[in-house]
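Figure 3 (text version): structure tokens given as input.
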């Protein structure tokens, strides 16, 4: 091979390695956290007399200039500097000279990247919490308007018992409240600063990790430097929390898809969040809920990916963890837009109250009420009541009626054992009465649903 070709190959290999090794093109998203962490670090160094106050002032002023350059679009990101940390530090040194070279004293890129990433995750944890709270408020508002709106409650996707639509919406409010609390729990557990852990074993410099933790809004410093630089549990928790929330988003999306179909016609989504077919103008496709359902698999993949990256890493830092960020960035962007658009879909959809009520007359939803009446009022063994109820259901089927539509004579003639049943049984088979009879704590009665709504309104006010 000629010297010329050998040099070309060498240059090509070097460029390939630079491209493979660099993270600057995605970790540049952490620029504000990196600069914020560096300013806190420089302040601590000055307080500890590791650098002078003058040098700290120069560093802070220079870092703020770099921040302005990045946010204005003037800053040029390049593979030459590998990652956001080196890119910022290099530009800082260009601006202020030798003082910029003192910034990295008593820290490593290992603790620096973990600090930046932790700050990002904590910030996003709070902002996602805020979005979840908005969505909960939307469900609660909708529920408050439909505490008397009858709809069929289902198990196995089969009509089971009458409930009210507000109660159904409050089920989702409860789901997302757990999500809200899950994010909050993660924030509390992970709000500790890795900065000052250095490469893996701490530093001989006389640093004050408690001060940098305070300056950055952490509760304190992490306890073990080796664990700190290799830890990505905070990122995994964020991915798990996002995945669980997306699972809940996918569940309501599935119901919206079903409810908006001709078979159900329970809701009608705004034209802003549905599209027509390319060849069938009569169709209105629930594109947004379908996309939300599909994106759930995407965030699951990001969670599994990082779990797999971390599963065999020896202590302490390993380059593998460079693969920790892109999936997190993607999942954060996915959950943010998903929560926003779902909130708008719920706010703007039309509830077809009449269709829901009519659907309650399919499937004999109050059959259980007849059995309960026979047990409670006639002191009948449940199994006997169960078979008598089946006879009444067969009678209703023969008349092409729902059991809730039978009159007292039709009930009495359905079985010899019911020939003298009290006329009050008719009211027990009423769909509305059936729904309201379920007034145990957490039940579907209008009164209990209203209590749930009020409880959530108070909770929302308390979560400022």
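Below: residues designed for each position.
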């Amino acid at each position: 091979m000629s010297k010329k070709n050998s040099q070309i190959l060498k240059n090509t290999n070097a460029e390939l390695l630079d491209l493979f090794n660099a993270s600057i093109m995605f970790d540049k998203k952490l620029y504000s956290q990196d600069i914020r962490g560096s300013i806190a670090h420089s302040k601590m160094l000055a307080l500890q007399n590791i650098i002078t106050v003058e040098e700290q002032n120069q560093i802070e002023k220079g870092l703020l200039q770099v921040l302005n350059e990045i946010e204005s679009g003037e800053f040029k990101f390049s593979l030459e500097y590998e990652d956001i940390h080196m890119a910022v530090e290099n530009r800082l040194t260009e601006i202020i000279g030798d003082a910029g070279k003192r910034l990295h004293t008593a820290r490593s890129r290992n603790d620096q990247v973990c600090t930046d990433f932790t700050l990002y995750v904590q910030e996003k944890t709070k902002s996602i919490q805020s979005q979840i709270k908005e969505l909960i408020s939307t469900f609660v508002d909708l529920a408050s308007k439909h505490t008397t709106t009858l709809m069929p409650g289902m198990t196995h996707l089969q009509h089971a018992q009458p409930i009210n639509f507000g109660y159904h919406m409050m089920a989702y409010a409860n789901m997302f409240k757990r999500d809200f609390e899950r994010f909050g729990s993660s924030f509390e557990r992970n709000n500790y600063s890795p900065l000052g852990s250095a490469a893996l074993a701490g530093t001989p410099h006389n640093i004050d990790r408690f001060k940098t933790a305070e300056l950055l809004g952490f509760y304190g410093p992490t306890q073990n430097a080796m664990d700190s630089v290799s830890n990505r549990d905070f990122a995994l928790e964020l991915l798990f929390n996002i995945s669980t929330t997306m699972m809940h988003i996918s569940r309501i999306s599935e119901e919206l898809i079903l409810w908006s179909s001709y078979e159900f016609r329970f809701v009608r989504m705004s034209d802003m969040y549905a599209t027509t077919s390319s060849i069938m103008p009569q169709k209105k496709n629930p594109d947004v809920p379908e996309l939300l359902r599909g994106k759930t698999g995407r965030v699951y993949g990001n969670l599994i990916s990082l779990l797999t990256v971390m599963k065999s890493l020896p202590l302490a830092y390993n380059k593998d963890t460079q693969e920790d960020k892109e999936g997190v960035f993607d999942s954060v962007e996915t959950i943010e837009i998903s929560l926003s658009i779902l909130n708008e879909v719920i706010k703007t959809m039309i509830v077809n109250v009449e269709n829901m009520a009519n659907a309650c007359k399919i499937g004999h939803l109050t059959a259980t009420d007849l059995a309960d009446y026979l047990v409670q009022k006639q002191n009948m063994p449940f199994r006997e009541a169960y078979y008598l109820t089946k006879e009444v259901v067969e009678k209703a089927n023969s008349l092409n009626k729902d059991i809730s539509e039978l009159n007292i004579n039709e009930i009495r003639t359905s079985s010899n054992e019911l020939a003298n049943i009290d006329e009050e049984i008719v009211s027990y088979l009423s769909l509305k009465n059936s729904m309201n009879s379920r007034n145990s704590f957490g039940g579907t009665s209008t009164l209990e649903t209203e209590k749930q709504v009020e409880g959530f309104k108070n909770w929302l006010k308390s979560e400022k």
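The chain has a mean pLDDT of 94.
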